[in-house]
Amino acid sequence: MRIRQHAYFALISNTLTAADITSKLRVEPDAIGIRGSETPEPPVPRYHSWRVTSEETGLTVTDHLDRIIDRLGSHAEMIGDLVLEMVAADSAPRVGSVLRVVRHFDDVSGEEEEESVLEMREGRRLEKLPGQHQLLGWHLSPRVIDFLWSTHASLDFDEYG
Questions:
Q1: Global pTM exceeds 0.70
Q2: Could you give the count of Cα atoms lying within 13 Å of 161 in the half-sphere of its Cβ?
């Protein structure tokens, strides 16, 4: 099986643009979305978005989440305050913050499962069985949970394949 995956943290608003969010947080995003930039009526995308991403190949979900929090962790309280302001000003369903993981299984551009054999003592060998892809499995550390709590973020997994 081939797996391709990435993660991002996003702030989503009907009214605050990515530039507004950047000026409030003083953190540059990796990607932005502009409400109505594809079609004005109905607006597509439906919301403005400000995103910090982790897209490097070879990383587990846990590694992707750590990279994002390495970058944003010191801003978590400020992000949380901004999210509360955004939600108070606009109660639309998706307004707020999200930490999202996107995984594609059997993706042609994904990473192939590594085969490995570990040489043991006395000539014995330990062989990894098929189906134990090195990118499967993940956990939420207390650090990630604290970040989610501080930023009032939901955790979302999108999986395809």
A1: yes
A2: 16
β-sheet bridge partners, residue 32 = 50
Residue 130 has pLDDT above 80, yes or no: no
Name the burial class of residue 32, with classes exposed (0-12), middle (13-18) and buried (19+) by CB atoms within 10 angstroms of its CB. middle
**Tokens 């605050």 belong to residue:** 16
Provide mean pLDDT across the span 145-153: 98
Bond before 29 cis per omega within 30 degrees: no
Contact by Cβ (8 Å): 144, 69: yes
Amino acid at 25: L
- pLDDT for 86-117, tens place per residue? 999 987 778 999 999 999 988 788 877 777 66
Query: What is d(CA 156, CA 56) in angstroms, rounded to the nearest whole number?
Result: 19
DSSP the chain: -EEEEEEEEEEEESS--HHHHHHHHT---SEEE-TTSSBTTTTBSSSEEEEEEE--TT--HHHHHHHHHHHHGGGHHHHHHHHHHHHHH---TT-EEEEEEEEEET-TTSEEPPP-EEE-GGG-EEEPPTT--TT------HHHHHHHHHHTEEEEEEEE-
Instruction: Confirm if 159 and 4 have CB atoms less than 8 A apart.
Output: no
